[in-house]
Design goal:
Blueprint: H1 2-7, E1 11-12, H2 24-35, H3 48-62, E2 72-75, H4 77-89, E3 95-100, H5 104-112, E4 116-121, H6 131-136, E5 142-148, H7 160-173, E6 176-180, E7 206-211, E8 224-227, H8 230-244, H9 249-261, H10 264-287, E9 292-293, E10 300-304, H11 313-324, E11 326-327, E12 329-330, H12 338-341, E13 344-348, H13 353-363
Parallel strand pairs: 1-11, 3-4, 3-5, 5-6, 6-7
Antiparallel strand pairs: 2-8, 7-8, 9-10, 10-13, 12-13
C-alpha cells in the first residue's frame, strides 16, 4: 500500500513509519559516535553501554532484572530479535499460538522457520478472549505463545487477568512465551504496561522483545533487543550473530544516549501526544462512516471499511485511496479468515498533526 500510495501521490496512513521528530539526545549521540570512530562491528550482543542502558530501563520501567552481560541481545530491530529467538528455540513442526488479529511479521517469521501457527480469535471492539479460547488452541505439539502488547494492529493492551491466563497455560504445558512490547510506552486512558515476564513462574520461559524504533521515531535505524534467561540468550545471540552479525554500531550508541538522558517527562509526553492524535483520527474515521475500534495503546486503529465498494479489503483500501488519497492496510493482512479481514482496514496515526488534519479533510470527501 505504501507503493500504491506513492504512485497516487497520496497520504500514507498504511505503513507504521512514524513521522514524528527524533529526540535530540538520540540523534546527536549517533552523530558523535560516528565522529568518535564507533563504526566497526560490535560484539554480537551489542555495545556494553547500550546493554547496560537497556538493563536499567528494564528494571525501572518493566520490573525485570536482567544481567547486561548475559541476558540481553541487541539485534536488527524487534523483528530481528523475534526471528533470532524463533531460530534458536523452535523446531520445524512446532505449533505456536498467535492472537488474531495478528501482526503479519509474526506470522511470516513463524512460517519462515517452518513452525505451524495456530490461532486464538479475539472479539471486536475491545479484542477480548477467554481462557478457554486459549486452552482450546493448545495441543501436544504446541511449543510457544506470542503476545503483542500493546498490539499491532489492534491497539489492544492485555489486562493482568489475560496475561495470567497465558501464564497459567504456559506453565501447565511448559511453553515459551515470546512477547513483542515495542509499543510499551504508547498507552491511553491511564492504562499500564505489564510485561508477562514479571508474573510468577514466567521469567525463565519468557523472551521479552522490544526496541526503540517507535519510542524514538527511528524506524529505519533497526535497533531492537531481547531479554531472556542466559541459557536462551546464548542461543538467541548465536543466531543473531549468524544472521545479522550486529546492529549498526553508531546507531546503537545513539539509542544508548537516549535511554540514559531522556527522563520520565519524555515518555509521559508520548502518551499525551499520541492520545491527541488518536482522537483526531478516530473522530475523522467515525465522521466518514468508517467506524473505528478505539485503540487502547500503540498507534494504529482498525476501522470498518464495509461501506466502501469492493468484496475484499484490498479492493476497499484501493477505493479509499482512489477517492480520498488516504492509504490504509487491508484487513486480510491481519486475519486468517479473509472474509473477516475484508471488512477492515488499519490506519497509522504516527504522523504530524498537519498530516493528520490533511487526512481528516481527505476522509471527509466520503
Amino acid at each position: 500500500m505504501s507503493v500504491e500510495c506513492e504512485r497516487a501521490d497520496g497520504l500514507n496512513l498504511a505503513q507504521g513509519v512514524c513521522d514524528t521528530p527524533v529526540p535530540a539526545p538520540v540523534r546527536l549521540g549517533a552523530q558523535r559516535a560516528v565522529d568518535e570512530g564507533i563504526n566497526s562491528y560490535t560484539r554480537f550482543d551489542g555495545l556494553p553501554k547500550l546493554r547496560t542502558a537497556i538493563a536499567n530501563k528494564m528494571d525501572r520501567y518493566n520490573g525485570i532484572k536482567a544481567d547486561a552481560e548475559s541476558e540481553i541481545i541487541v539485534s536488527s530491530g524487534s523483528t530481528g530479535s523475534f526471528y533470532s529467538a524463533c531460530l534458536a528455540l523452535l523446531n520445524p513442526g512446532d505449533e505456536v499460538v498467535l492472537f488474531e488479529p495478528f501482526y503479519g511479521y509474526h506470522l511470516n517469521t513463524l512460517l519462515s522457520v517452518e513452525a505451524s501457527p495456530t490461532f486464538v480469535s479475539m472479539r471486536a471492539p475491545d479484542w477480548t478472549f477467554t481462557k478457554k479460547d486459549l486452552e482450546d488452541a493448545i495441543t501436544n505439539k504446541t511449543r510457544a505463545i506470542v503476545v503483542n502488547t500493546p498490539g499491532n494492529p489492534s491497539g489492544k493492551v492485555y489486562t493482568r487477568q489475560e496475561l495470567q491466563w497465558i501464564a497459567d497455560v504456559a506453565i501447565k504445558h511448559d511453553l515459551f512465551v515470546f512477547t513483542d512490547e515495542i509499543y510499551e510506552y504508547f498507552l491511553y486512558e491511564k492504562r499500564r504496561h505489564i510485561s508477562p515476564a514479571t508474573l510468577p513462574g514466567m521469567a525463565e520461559r519468557t523472551v521479552t522483545i522490544s526496541g526503540l524504533s517507535k519510542t524514538f521515531s527511528i524506524t529505519g535505524w533497526r535497533i531492537g533487543y531481547s531479554v531472556s534467561n542466559a541459557k536462551w540468550a546464548q542461543m538467541i545471540g548465536y543466531m543473531n550473530d549468524l544472521v545479522y552479525v550486529c546492529a549498526p554500531a553508531p546507531l546503537q550508541a545513539g539509542v544508548a544516549h537516549g535511554l540514559m538522558e531522556l527522563d520520565d517527562d519524555y515518555y509521559s509526553g508520548l502518551c499525551q501526544e499520541f492520545a491527541h492524535k488518536r482522537e483526531i483520527i478516530c473522530t475523522a474515521l467515525a465522521d466518514a462512516g468508517l467506524t473505528p475500534c478505539r485503540p487502547q495503546g500503540a498507534y494504529y486503529v482498525l476501522a470498518d471499511l464495509s461501506r466502501l465498494p469492493g468484496t475484499s479489503g484490498k479492493e476497499r483500501a484501493m477505493q479509499l485511496l482512489k477517492s480520498t488519497g488516504v492509504a490504509c492496510v487491508p484487513g486480510e493482512a491481519f486475519f486468517r479468515d479473509r472474509d473477516k479481514g475484508s471488512r477492515i482496514g488499519r490506519f497509522c496515526f504516527a504522523k504530524t498533526d498537519e498530516e493528520l488534519q490533511d487526512a481528516c479533510r481527505r476522509l471527509a470527501r466520503l
